[in-house]
Amino acid sequence: MTDGVELDHVGFERARRTVLEDVSATLVEHRVGLIGRNGSGKTTLLRIIGALDYATSGHVRIGGIDPREDLKKVRPMVGYLFQNPETQLVLPRVDEDVGLGLTRGRRTPDQQLRVVEALAQFGVDHLADRFTHQLSGGEQQLVALAGVVVREPRVLLLDEPTTHLDLTYSQRMRGAIDSLEQQVILASHDLDLIDSCDRVLVIDNARVSFDGAPGPAIDHYRELARWS
Predict the structure, then answer these.
(1) Choosing a second label site near 185 at 20 to 30 A (CA), which of 46, 69, 213, 214?
(2) Is residue 11 situated within a structural domain?
(3) Helices 137-149 and 167-179: crossing angle, nearest 10°?
(4) What is the structure's pLDDT at 91?
């Protein structure tokens, strides 16, 4: 099976407005960053890769598979972390919510162990019996990440994973991302996080205006902001 994510002349329109246009790239690097101004199309590109939206032109392939042709096979391969963890945490208790992706009923001992291990991976196993709505924003984000990772996807899509987090939890989230074995594609305004990526795409006016190493990509992004 082909590794990575292939974007082949991807475009997306919503309400007669072009959100993405002619995006082509083969993403095989361990860490890929997406940066751009608000409304540039970063989140839309993540959603298309995650098969939450479908491209209106071109093709996306995950591991060589087009989600429109075999969504059932693609779904387990991709995990998506939303910008706001409150939209992702749906069950009252932490361990119940993290285990939701494994079963809709009673968990087996093996599944329960996977839940414990996923929480421990991000240092939040002590929160297992807490109510999700009583957690801090940083705790919720780490628990939400555990709920994505427990399903063992091949590709993780992270939408602004450090937004609204204080310095302590921003650093913890960066450490959590560094610990991930999976390929990670993340959209962020956190330039320290972007600088740790292997490859960065700058999205501007619905197109990729730069694709390369993080340092030059950040310089390009700053230049765009300067002239906007």
Answers:
(1) 69
(2) no
(3) 10
(4) 93
